[in-house]
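ingest -> validate -> predict -> emit
validate: passed (alphabet ok, no gaps, 271 aa)
predict: started
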Amino acid sequence: MKKKLFNMKRRWIQLICAILYNCHITNFAKGTIYQGDLKGICVPGLNCYSCPGASFACPLGSLQSALLSSKYKFPYYMLGVLILFGVLLGRVICGFLCPFGLVQELLYKIPSKKLQKSIWTRRLSYVKYIILAVFVILIPLLFLTPGFCKYICPAGTLEGGIPLLLKNESLRQLAGRLFQWKFLLLILILVSAVFIFRSFCRFICPLGAFYGLFHKVSLFGIRIDPEKCNDCGLCVRDCKMDVKKAGDAECIQCGECIGHCHRCALHFGVK
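emit:
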């Protein structure tokens, strides 16, 4: 019962965040983007700046934009904000505050044969750290282009690209091979999410990779009581993510493992 209530609360938080991030609903009908003062503030979860409904900026997009101008000004503000998010919440953001994570979880509910985690999914989970280094940091610094947003981000295609193209004929005429590539990538990611739990989060998302770096110091998340834990491994075995230990860098702090622990050694809260 406690597990069911916890999951229900988490789902409501995910839905509320998705709505708050994208509360300018009427802009979807207009095909326009909100450009008010709030766009100077970034939310903790992945959410496209160019989404017609978006009220705030995306942390990855903001970081890349800051790196583009780092030749003239070091991005203290954006790095500070992201580090603050990481220290306070870490990957709690992935489990509770990311709309694209919610999309993947809902797709995973579609009845189908599911791919079980293995040594290969665990190895693939390191790809997102490469994407963080190359597409979020190196490409903006070396080639002055927002690499992740331009070439990969499926949230940008789903939330921004498709709605804007549907409402703007001029944009449809400009859409070329780059958009075709990103649309194909989006389809592949969404389809994979039906069979693989949070496939984007596990293998691709650089924001999750960044927040994962703070798993040992983040203030909130899954806490293990060493006096009660007997290292039975149930929490790791039953987790859909590629964790080696509850609360590690791959853990999205969703709290699913709490209900599997027979010794009540796992708790969610201040670490």
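The chain has two domains: 17-221, 222-266.
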